Amino acid sequence: MENQAWARVTAELEKRREGDERENDRRRQEIAEKYPDLERLLVKRHEMVMGAVRFSFAGSEAADPEQAMREYNEKIADRLSAYGYPRDYLTPVCQCPLCGDTGYVYENAIQKRCACALALYQKALTQEDPGGQEPSFARFDPARFPDTALPGADVTQREWMLAVRDKCLQYARSAGTGEKKTLLLHGGSGLGKTFLLRCVEEEARSRGVDCLFVTAYDLLVSLKNAFFSGGKDSAEMYFDAPLLLIDDLGMEPLMENITVEQIYNLLNARLSRGLYTALTTNLTLDELKRRYTERVASRLLDTRIGMALHFVGRDIRLLKSEELIVIQRSAER
């Protein structure tokens, strides 16, 4: 399953890069046709860069290329603004500013998978439903969870998850009318958070509640694009959905002055309008507070207006893999 999931991630990233390239070409062609003066500036900038490269190969020193680049960029941005475009309209388009949609970033010269690739991987894994069925509370199978006591507790993981399921069902049935506006499902990977979030969505829909499901990564991309383009309408659906379900909070890139502010604004606006928001995260509560600040955490952890349910125990995906290995080894004997 893991190899198939990564293959899906690779395919999705390649699809994104192809889309990025098409959009970049479209924007450049649009500018070239409408504003020849701006196109000439772009050509001159390119020639300056190529000239600096040639000087470098020849072992000579050109005039400060970085300063020249800054000047050209400023002129181009000013001209774009004058023509009614965003100043960054010709900046290469990508959904993830950290990796440029390659799926990799570098930390201390070491290549690592980007948060966006990890988010896609988690999404690919959770979409692999062993039963091939859509998630619903009727299909929740407690037998998938170990019937062994949790460390330091007098309940088993199965009993714990049955209690969690009941709380999720309670929230889903009261969405639109209940006092609890938020539902936070938090805990480690492979414990069933996304499945139950989908169950909440299915149950609420069956009761006539309009729902919108989105990953935290895709949500942030939309909010960021709307923020920079000034296109509030493009993100309006996230502010208006009666029940918004956000999967994998914490897997989106953490961009300074953007991520925390946009998520806070969204949660605050939804709470002030009495709308319902359900989320999953692999972060601990302490990590949640550190990443998003107390003001965001307080809106997710306030028991007067919401529920926070802790998922604990063993990763059921790993348990399934271990069972398959045992079965395979038994068959080989």
SSE blueprint and pairings:
Layout: H1 2-34, H2 36-57, H3 65-82, E1 104-107, E2 110-113, H4 115-126, H5 157-174, E3 182-187, H6 193-206, E4 211-215, H7 216-229, H8 236-240, E5 243-249, H9 259-272, E6 276-281, H10 285-301, E7 306-311, H11 316-332
Parallel strand pairs: 3-6, 3-7, 4-5, 5-6
Antiparallel strand pairs: 1-2
Helix pairs in contact: 1-2, 1-4, 2-3, 5-6, 9-10
Let me know the number of strands: 7
State the helical fraction: 55-70%
CATH superfamily descriptor of the largest domain: P-loop containing nucleotide triphosphate hydrolases
Q: Structural class per helix/strand content? A: alpha/beta
CATH architecture annotation name of the largest domain: 3-Layer(aba) Sandwich
Q: Strands of the biggest beta sheet: in what spatial order?
A: 4-5-6-3-7
Q: SSE order, as H and E?
A: HHHEEHHEHEHHEHEHEH
Query: What's the overall average pLDDT, rounded?
Result: 84
What is the CATH third-level topology name of the largest domain? Rossmann fold
Task: Provide an overview of this structure.
This protein is an alpha/beta fold and 333 residues long. Helix content is 55%, strand content 11%. The strands form two sheets. A five-stranded parallel β-sheet has the order 4-5-6-3-7, sandwiched between helices. Helix 1 (2-34) packs across helix 2 (36-57), helix 2 packs antiparallel against helix 3 (65-82) and helix 9 packs parallel to helix 10. The longest helix has 33 residues, at 2-34. The chain is elongated and about 70 Å long. The model is unreliable at 128-132 and 321-333 (pLDDT under 50).
